Amino acid sequence: MTDLILSSLYPTVGGQSSRPSYMELAGAADLSAGVWPSVKFVMAVLMDRHPHLQRWLKHWPSALTFLLALLEYTSITEHRASMSEHFFGLCRESVDLRKLEGLSAMDELKVDRLREEGRVLTGKQKALSVLLLSLLPKLLDKSQGRGSERQWVDLMRRGFVAVDAAYRIGYLLGISPYWSPFMHLIGVRLVRRTGEEAPQGMGLRHLLWCLVYAIQFGQWYMSVRSSLRSKALEGRPQVNVPPPARPRPASAKCGGVGLPVDKRVCPVCRKKRNNPAVSAVSGYVYCYVCLVKAVRGTGKDPVTQFDMREEQILRLHEP
User: What is the pLDDT of residues 141-155, one digit of tens each?
Assistant: First the structure.
Protein backbone atom coordinates (compact mmCIF):
# COMPACT_ATOMS: atom_id res chain seq x y z
CA MET A 1 0.00 0.00 0.00
CA THR A 2 2.86 2.37 0.82
CA ASP A 3 4.49 1.70 -2.55
CA LEU A 4 1.20 2.42 -4.31
CA ILE A 5 0.79 5.76 -2.57
CA LEU A 6 4.42 6.71 -3.20
CA SER A 7 4.15 5.72 -6.86
CA SER A 8 1.04 7.88 -7.13
CA LEU A 9 2.82 10.88 -5.64
CA TYR A 10 6.26 10.16 -7.13
CA PRO A 11 6.01 8.12 -10.36
CA THR A 12 9.65 7.01 -10.32
CA VAL A 13 8.90 4.81 -7.30
CA GLY A 14 7.79 1.33 -8.27
CA GLY A 15 8.68 1.70 -11.94
CA GLN A 16 5.21 2.80 -13.08
CA SER A 17 6.54 5.32 -15.57
CA SER A 18 3.31 5.52 -17.62
CA ARG A 19 1.08 6.20 -14.61
CA PRO A 20 0.82 9.95 -13.90
CA SER A 21 1.44 11.12 -10.38
CA TYR A 22 -1.27 12.66 -8.24
CA MET A 23 0.53 16.00 -8.33
CA GLU A 24 0.55 16.07 -12.12
CA LEU A 25 -3.15 15.31 -12.37
CA ALA A 26 -4.05 17.79 -9.63
CA GLY A 27 -1.98 20.47 -11.34
CA ALA A 28 -3.70 19.87 -14.68
CA ALA A 29 -7.13 19.96 -13.03
CA ASP A 30 -6.38 23.18 -11.11
CA LEU A 31 -5.01 24.86 -14.24
CA SER A 32 -8.15 24.01 -16.20
CA ALA A 33 -10.44 25.09 -13.35
CA GLY A 34 -8.70 28.46 -12.99
CA VAL A 35 -9.49 29.70 -16.50
CA TRP A 36 -13.21 30.38 -16.00
CA PRO A 37 -13.04 32.43 -12.73
CA SER A 38 -10.08 34.44 -14.07
CA VAL A 39 -11.94 35.40 -17.25
CA LYS A 40 -15.08 36.11 -15.20
CA PHE A 41 -13.16 38.55 -12.98
CA VAL A 42 -11.66 40.35 -15.99
CA MET A 43 -15.06 40.66 -17.67
CA ALA A 44 -16.65 42.04 -14.49
CA VAL A 45 -13.96 44.73 -14.24
CA LEU A 46 -14.33 45.66 -17.91
CA MET A 47 -18.13 45.92 -17.70
CA ASP A 48 -17.93 48.11 -14.60
CA ARG A 49 -15.35 50.47 -16.08
CA HIS A 50 -16.71 50.50 -19.63
CA PRO A 51 -20.52 50.27 -19.47
CA HIS A 52 -20.84 51.11 -23.17
CA LEU A 53 -19.25 47.74 -23.96
CA GLN A 54 -21.70 45.75 -21.88
CA ARG A 55 -23.94 44.91 -24.83
CA TRP A 56 -21.08 42.82 -26.24
CA LEU A 57 -19.27 41.77 -23.08
CA LYS A 58 -22.41 40.36 -21.44
CA HIS A 59 -22.25 37.44 -23.89
CA TRP A 60 -18.79 36.39 -22.72
CA PRO A 61 -19.92 33.05 -21.14
CA SER A 62 -21.22 31.75 -24.47
CA ALA A 63 -18.19 33.10 -26.33
CA LEU A 64 -15.77 31.55 -23.85
CA THR A 65 -17.59 28.21 -24.01
CA PHE A 66 -17.35 28.21 -27.81
CA LEU A 67 -13.67 29.18 -27.69
CA LEU A 68 -12.89 26.45 -25.15
CA ALA A 69 -14.73 23.89 -27.26
CA LEU A 70 -12.71 24.89 -30.32
CA LEU A 71 -9.37 24.83 -28.50
CA GLU A 72 -10.10 21.60 -26.64
CA TYR A 73 -11.25 19.92 -29.86
CA THR A 74 -7.96 20.86 -31.52
CA SER A 75 -5.97 19.64 -28.52
CA ILE A 76 -7.89 16.36 -28.21
CA THR A 77 -7.58 15.69 -31.95
CA GLU A 78 -3.87 16.47 -32.23
CA HIS A 79 -2.53 15.47 -28.81
CA ARG A 80 -5.22 13.17 -27.31
CA ALA A 81 -5.31 15.46 -24.27
CA SER A 82 -6.88 18.66 -23.04
CA MET A 83 -4.77 21.80 -23.12
CA SER A 84 -3.88 21.56 -19.43
CA GLU A 85 -3.18 17.82 -19.66
CA HIS A 86 -0.95 18.35 -22.70
CA PHE A 87 0.93 21.05 -20.80
CA PHE A 88 1.78 18.53 -18.06
CA GLY A 89 2.86 15.88 -20.59
CA LEU A 90 -0.24 13.70 -20.23
CA CYS A 91 -2.57 12.14 -22.76
CA ARG A 92 -5.83 10.21 -22.78
CA GLU A 93 -6.42 6.67 -23.89
CA SER A 94 -9.29 4.23 -23.75
CA VAL A 95 -9.41 1.93 -20.74
CA ASP A 96 -10.06 -0.95 -23.17
CA LEU A 97 -6.34 -0.83 -24.08
CA ARG A 98 -5.46 -1.40 -20.45
CA LYS A 99 -7.26 -4.73 -20.55
CA LEU A 100 -4.87 -5.93 -23.28
CA GLU A 101 -1.72 -5.06 -21.35
CA GLY A 102 0.19 -7.90 -19.76
CA LEU A 103 -1.73 -10.67 -21.58
CA SER A 104 0.58 -11.65 -24.41
CA ALA A 105 3.30 -10.31 -26.66
CA MET A 106 0.81 -10.00 -29.53
CA ASP A 107 -1.52 -7.91 -27.39
CA GLU A 108 1.33 -5.62 -26.37
CA LEU A 109 2.29 -5.15 -30.02
CA LYS A 110 -1.33 -4.35 -30.82
CA VAL A 111 -1.45 -1.72 -28.09
CA ASP A 112 1.84 -0.19 -29.25
CA ARG A 113 0.60 -0.04 -32.85
CA LEU A 114 -2.65 1.64 -31.82
CA ARG A 115 -0.72 4.20 -29.78
CA GLU A 116 1.64 4.94 -32.66
CA GLU A 117 -1.30 5.42 -35.03
CA GLY A 118 -3.11 7.61 -32.51
CA ARG A 119 -6.19 5.37 -32.49
CA VAL A 120 -6.41 5.05 -28.71
CA LEU A 121 -9.61 7.10 -28.39
CA THR A 122 -12.88 6.41 -30.18
CA GLY A 123 -14.80 9.18 -31.91
CA LYS A 124 -17.43 9.05 -29.18
CA GLN A 125 -14.81 9.42 -26.46
CA LYS A 126 -13.27 12.42 -28.22
CA ALA A 127 -16.66 14.11 -28.64
CA LEU A 128 -17.65 13.52 -25.02
CA SER A 129 -14.25 14.75 -23.82
CA VAL A 130 -14.63 18.04 -25.71
CA LEU A 131 -18.22 18.43 -24.51
CA LEU A 132 -17.29 17.96 -20.85
CA LEU A 133 -14.17 20.12 -21.02
CA SER A 134 -16.07 23.06 -22.51
CA LEU A 135 -19.43 22.85 -20.68
CA LEU A 136 -18.49 21.61 -17.21
CA PRO A 137 -16.76 24.86 -16.05
CA LYS A 138 -19.82 26.89 -17.07
CA LEU A 139 -22.23 24.54 -15.28
CA LEU A 140 -20.13 24.56 -12.09
CA ASP A 141 -19.96 28.35 -12.13
CA LYS A 142 -23.73 28.63 -12.54
CA SER A 143 -24.33 26.17 -9.70
CA GLN A 144 -22.21 28.30 -7.36
CA GLY A 145 -24.09 31.45 -8.28
CA ARG A 146 -27.56 29.94 -7.80
CA GLY A 147 -26.91 27.74 -4.79
CA SER A 148 -28.60 30.12 -2.35
CA GLU A 149 -31.76 30.31 -4.51
CA ARG A 150 -32.21 26.65 -5.35
CA GLN A 151 -31.22 24.19 -2.67
CA TRP A 152 -31.27 21.15 -4.93
CA VAL A 153 -28.66 22.77 -7.19
CA ASP A 154 -26.44 23.35 -4.17
CA LEU A 155 -26.95 19.73 -3.06
CA MET A 156 -26.01 18.44 -6.50
CA ARG A 157 -22.87 20.57 -6.52
CA ARG A 158 -21.85 19.33 -3.07
CA GLY A 159 -22.53 15.76 -4.16
CA PHE A 160 -20.35 16.19 -7.24
CA VAL A 161 -17.51 17.59 -5.11
CA ALA A 162 -17.76 14.60 -2.75
CA VAL A 163 -17.80 12.04 -5.57
CA ASP A 164 -14.91 13.77 -7.32
CA ALA A 165 -12.88 13.71 -4.09
CA ALA A 166 -13.65 10.00 -3.67
CA TYR A 167 -12.33 9.26 -7.17
CA ARG A 168 -9.13 11.18 -6.46
CA ILE A 169 -8.57 9.25 -3.24
CA GLY A 170 -9.24 6.00 -5.10
CA TYR A 171 -6.65 6.93 -7.71
CA LEU A 172 -4.12 7.88 -5.03
CA LEU A 173 -4.58 4.50 -3.32
CA GLY A 174 -4.38 2.60 -6.61
CA ILE A 175 -7.97 1.34 -6.34
CA SER A 176 -9.15 2.88 -9.60
CA PRO A 177 -7.44 3.99 -12.84
CA TYR A 178 -9.93 6.85 -13.20
CA TRP A 179 -9.10 10.35 -12.04
CA SER A 180 -12.67 11.68 -12.16
CA PRO A 181 -16.22 10.29 -12.42
CA PHE A 182 -16.61 11.75 -15.91
CA MET A 183 -13.54 9.88 -17.15
CA HIS A 184 -15.09 6.73 -15.70
CA LEU A 185 -18.31 7.55 -17.53
CA ILE A 186 -16.65 7.80 -20.95
CA GLY A 187 -14.11 5.03 -20.28
CA VAL A 188 -10.92 7.11 -20.48
CA ARG A 189 -7.80 7.18 -18.33
CA LEU A 190 -4.79 9.50 -18.28
CA VAL A 191 -1.27 8.23 -18.99
CA ARG A 192 2.09 9.91 -19.26
CA ARG A 193 3.45 10.53 -22.73
CA THR A 194 6.34 8.37 -23.85
CA GLY A 195 9.61 9.81 -25.06
CA GLU A 196 8.51 9.54 -28.68
CA GLU A 197 5.24 11.32 -27.95
CA ALA A 198 6.72 14.09 -25.81
CA PRO A 199 5.49 17.50 -26.96
CA GLN A 200 7.93 19.61 -28.93
CA GLY A 201 8.23 23.36 -29.30
CA MET A 202 9.88 25.15 -26.40
CA GLY A 203 8.49 28.52 -27.53
CA LEU A 204 4.94 27.32 -27.10
CA ARG A 205 5.75 25.82 -23.71
CA HIS A 206 7.24 29.13 -22.55
CA LEU A 207 4.05 30.89 -23.64
CA LEU A 208 1.96 28.35 -21.76
CA TRP A 209 4.07 28.85 -18.66
CA CYS A 210 3.37 32.60 -18.85
CA LEU A 211 -0.36 31.88 -19.11
CA VAL A 212 -0.14 29.54 -16.13
CA TYR A 213 1.56 32.18 -14.00
CA ALA A 214 -1.01 34.78 -15.11
CA ILE A 215 -3.91 32.52 -14.12
CA GLN A 216 -2.31 31.65 -10.79
CA PHE A 217 -1.66 35.33 -10.08
CA GLY A 218 -5.28 36.13 -10.89
CA GLN A 219 -6.51 33.43 -8.50
CA TRP A 220 -4.19 34.69 -5.76
CA TYR A 221 -5.25 38.31 -6.25
CA MET A 222 -8.97 37.48 -6.12
CA SER A 223 -8.47 35.57 -2.87
CA VAL A 224 -6.43 38.24 -1.05
CA ARG A 225 -7.56 41.56 -2.54
CA SER A 226 -9.91 42.33 0.37
CA SER A 227 -7.16 41.74 2.94
CA LEU A 228 -4.70 43.80 0.89
CA ARG A 229 -7.08 46.75 0.91
CA SER A 230 -7.61 46.53 4.67
CA LYS A 231 -3.86 46.33 5.32
CA ALA A 232 -3.25 49.35 3.10
CA LEU A 233 -5.62 51.41 5.26
CA GLU A 234 -4.11 50.31 8.59
CA GLY A 235 -2.47 53.11 10.55
CA ARG A 236 -4.06 55.86 8.51
CA PRO A 237 -6.23 58.39 10.32
CA GLN A 238 -9.87 58.15 9.43
CA VAL A 239 -11.13 61.36 7.90
CA ASN A 240 -14.87 61.88 7.74
CA VAL A 241 -15.43 63.75 4.51
CA PRO A 242 -18.88 65.37 4.37
CA PRO A 243 -20.94 64.34 1.36
CA PRO A 244 -21.28 66.96 -1.37
CA ALA A 245 -24.50 68.87 -1.69
CA ARG A 246 -27.00 67.02 -3.84
CA PRO A 247 -27.91 68.98 -6.98
CA ARG A 248 -31.48 70.16 -7.21
CA PRO A 249 -33.77 68.45 -9.73
CA ALA A 250 -34.58 70.39 -12.85
CA SER A 251 -38.13 71.55 -13.42
CA ALA A 252 -40.49 69.83 -15.81
CA LYS A 253 -40.23 72.82 -18.18
CA CYS A 254 -36.50 72.18 -18.47
CA GLY A 255 -37.05 68.47 -19.17
CA GLY A 256 -36.53 67.12 -15.65
CA VAL A 257 -38.39 63.92 -14.76
CA GLY A 258 -38.70 64.70 -11.06
CA LEU A 259 -37.98 62.48 -8.08
CA PRO A 260 -40.30 59.71 -6.82
CA VAL A 261 -41.34 59.58 -3.16
CA ASP A 262 -39.97 56.05 -2.74
CA LYS A 263 -36.18 56.06 -3.04
CA ARG A 264 -36.26 52.48 -4.36
CA VAL A 265 -38.15 53.59 -7.47
CA CYS A 266 -36.41 54.63 -10.69
CA PRO A 267 -37.13 58.31 -11.56
CA VAL A 268 -37.49 57.46 -15.28
CA CYS A 269 -39.76 54.40 -15.43
CA ARG A 270 -41.37 54.94 -11.99
CA LYS A 271 -40.93 51.27 -11.14
CA LYS A 272 -38.75 49.51 -8.61
CA ARG A 273 -35.15 49.76 -9.76
CA ASN A 274 -33.79 46.82 -11.69
CA ASN A 275 -30.04 46.49 -12.26
CA PRO A 276 -29.28 49.87 -10.61
CA ALA A 277 -26.81 52.41 -11.93
CA VAL A 278 -25.81 55.84 -10.65
CA SER A 279 -25.14 59.02 -12.58
CA ALA A 280 -21.64 60.28 -11.80
CA VAL A 281 -22.65 63.90 -12.43
CA SER A 282 -25.68 64.01 -10.12
CA GLY A 283 -25.51 61.03 -7.77
CA TYR A 284 -29.09 59.91 -8.49
CA VAL A 285 -29.75 56.20 -9.03
CA TYR A 286 -31.79 54.77 -11.91
CA CYS A 287 -32.36 51.50 -13.68
CA TYR A 288 -29.29 50.85 -15.79
CA VAL A 289 -31.31 50.41 -18.98
CA CYS A 290 -33.39 53.55 -18.32
CA LEU A 291 -30.34 55.70 -17.67
CA VAL A 292 -28.48 54.42 -20.73
CA LYS A 293 -31.46 55.10 -23.01
CA ALA A 294 -31.92 58.61 -21.58
CA VAL A 295 -28.25 59.53 -21.94
CA ARG A 296 -28.06 58.17 -25.47
CA GLY A 297 -31.19 60.09 -26.42
CA THR A 298 -30.58 63.48 -24.79
CA GLY A 299 -27.00 63.46 -23.50
CA LYS A 300 -28.26 64.73 -20.13
CA ASP A 301 -28.98 63.43 -16.66
CA PRO A 302 -32.76 62.77 -16.50
CA VAL A 303 -33.31 64.46 -13.11
CA THR A 304 -30.92 67.43 -13.14
CA GLN A 305 -30.54 67.82 -16.92
CA PHE A 306 -26.78 68.15 -16.46
CA ASP A 307 -24.70 67.23 -19.49
CA MET A 308 -23.27 63.73 -19.16
CA ARG A 309 -21.76 60.95 -21.23
CA GLU A 310 -22.44 57.24 -21.22
CA GLU A 311 -19.01 56.64 -19.67
CA GLN A 312 -20.24 58.47 -16.55
CA ILE A 313 -22.79 55.75 -15.79
CA LEU A 314 -21.61 53.58 -12.90
CA ARG A 315 -23.08 50.18 -12.16
CA LEU A 316 -24.16 49.40 -8.59
CA HIS A 317 -24.45 46.08 -6.78
CA GLU A 318 -27.22 46.21 -4.21
CA PRO A 319 -27.27 43.57 -1.39
Answer: 777 655 445 677 777
Q: Render pLDDT for 71-116 as a digit per residue (tens, 0 to 9).
A: 889 888 888 888 888 888 888 888 765 554 444 555 555 555 555 5
The CATH number given to whatever domain includes residue 275 is 3.30.40.10
User: How many distinct structural domains can be found in the chain?
Assistant: 2
Is residue 110 domain-shared with residue 216, that is, in the same domain? yes
3-state secondary structure the chain: CHHHHHHHHCCCHHHCCCCCCHHHHHHHHHHHHCHHHHHHHHHHHHHHHCHHHHHHHCCHHHHHHHHHHHHHHHHHHHHCCCHHHHHCCEEEEEHHHHHHCCCCHHHHHHHHHHHHHCCCCCHHHHHHHHHHHHHHHHHHHHHHHCCCCCHHHHHHHHHHHHHHHHHHHHHHCCCCCCCCHHHHHHCEEEEECCCCCCCCCHHHHHHHHHHHHHHHHHHHHHHHHHHHHHHHHCCCCCCCCCCCCCCCCCCHHHCCCCCCCCCCECCCCCCECCCEEEECCCCCEEEHHHHHHHHHHHCECCCCCCECCHHHEEECCCC
- What average pLDDT does range 250-265 have in this prediction? 85
Does 180 lie in the same domain as 306?
no
Q: pTM of the predicted model, to two decimals?
A: 0.60
Residue that finishes a domain, picked among 221, 243, 261: 221
Higher pLDDT, 191 or 207: 191
pLDDT for 147 equals 44
